[in-house]
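How a chain folds remains the central question behind the approach discussed here. For one protein, we set the task of working out the structure tokens from the amino acid sequence alone. The sequence in question and its structure tokens are set out directly beneath this paragraph.

_____
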Amino acid sequence: MISINNLSVEFSAKSLFDNINYVINKKDKIALVGKNGAGKSTMLKIIAGLQQPTSGNVAVPRDITIGYLPQQMTLNDTMTVIEEVRSAFAHIDKLKERLDHYNEELATRTDYESASYQELIENMTSLTERLAMEESENAEAEIEKTLIGLGFTRKDFNRPTSEFSGGWRMRIELAKLLLRRPDVLLLDEPTNHLDIESIQWLESFLTQKADAVVLVSHDRAFIDNVTNRTIEISMGKIYDYSVNYSKFVELRKERIEQQMRAYQNQQKQIQDTEDFIERFRYKATKSVQVQSRIKQLAKIERIEVDEVDTSHLNLKFPPAPRSGDYPVIADNVGKAYGDHQVFDNATFTIKRGEKVAFVGKNGEGKSTLVKCIMGEIPFTGNLKIGHNVKIGYFAQNQAQLLDGEISVFDTIDRVAIGDIRTKIRDILGAFMFGGEASDKKVKVLSGGEKTRLAMIRLLLEPVNLLILDEPTNHLDMKTKDILKQAIKDFDGTVIVVSHDREFLDGLVEKVYEFGGGQVKECLGGIYDFLEKKKLASLQELELSRRPARAEKQSEPKQQAQPKPEPQPAAQPTEQPKRISYAEQREHEKMARRARKKVEEAEAEIARIEGLIKEIEAEIAGGRTDSEIFEQHSSLNKQLENAMSIWELASMDLDNFK
């Protein structure tokens, strides 16, 4: 579909890419990996057409559309959220032009049996279905599903985009990008501003609805779940593997080992040849053999071992002084900002030595409760910090609080006290700031380097309660693994605020979920929590479907008993004063339309459920071929989508009651 041909890029006489070739196919889900500075973001910009290579080209067919999400972008602040996201459908006119072009081509073609003709038919069918969806009323449902999936609430839809933080506005841009349904999605760190639930929704979208995807991410669980191909950029070359990231790591290790063995064998051969030449160079009887060995040596194509990052972060937290048995005891703790209650009645106890996670959607109070524990903000209820508890706190914006105008060494020297000042160079070396790197100004450091520098502060004084708020932001996978192991080995108590499932897996034994103004405790690891939450969500959805249907049957009884509904009866007396006849008619019309959508969605759910029962009956009867299981899986996905549409339609109908 997209062909990268003989691509080379040079910066300041340094080669970033050297004659690279590969192809992005229609259904590829590609993870672009490599160490920091290898050129991953540059590669995405070149494919997107935003940057030109030194030589070579990217061949993109005329009908292929590309969507690109950079790490940083200029955002529009002049519209509401829903208005901004609706602009994603401005491309429909271009799609119609493509369809007209296909129709014209179809009218002149006669090679009915050729592969290109079949491809033309497939493209027309796909484009027709896409236009039908985007021009139908389902487009609004798709917008709502996408925004809700990315963490917005319906109350947010009509808020100006200027009211949202940079991270939330990035979600708006991501929503627009996904709704455009480009043929190729280029995503640079798309999970940076997403919580766990939004990341899981994005995973589902990319695997089920997106065509080709090329993404850069340090979230191992995310790229493992989404991708089926891994392209590594190393020393200006690429290595292409048709596997996900975890399998790639194993294969890469094998590749390096094979290269090392071949390199060592070749080095031995070269050394033996050079020894022979040196030994017999001046003997006339061996001159022919010497000349032959010299020519042989010149023809050897030297084996290079791929670049291996041998720098090692030596991270180990100091031994924790003994604290009381219960470092944190919360009793009915609450926090509100004006009329907005962030959370209330939070009651829990964290025991000495426990490692727990705070998870939930952004804005639900995770960092707020951390600030309550730190005593930075007032709150209601009782919050007791245990005996002899010494807190080490890594804030979410810790790296941004560093002074950019001073050096790495001075940053640590200014906060170090006592004998530790004599060991600053050793500590910096352990954090890969050895030699000249310690004299760099902080402002020239990358995001990951600033995070490492901020982390050093936690090592300057022994603590027994570590509170880490998003500690993995900007850290690459290797550094995250080292930090995770250091926290595992730490003998004190740990509270981690994070959305990185792979980082939390095997690290925490208890999860506190923030949502709906509550803080709920869940025993077990992060995947235990997610599994329980998935089951709870399915049960809630099933229960919400049943009352909706039962409500219709119980309507006559409710009409015969008007006493329980005194308040709604007062509303009609006020409506004529505020609502004109035309507005009332329009309101009724919209209510009928919403009711029809619910009925259509319920009919579709019933239809799909019937088909699933038929297939399950065939399986029970002994049919076990792969086709029947594929049909069963496909229908279950259709059912999930139909239930989502029903849920949105029901929410619409509720607004007219």
The longest helix spans residues 581-620. The longest strand covers residues 14-24. The mean pLDDT is 80. The radius of gyration is 31 Å.
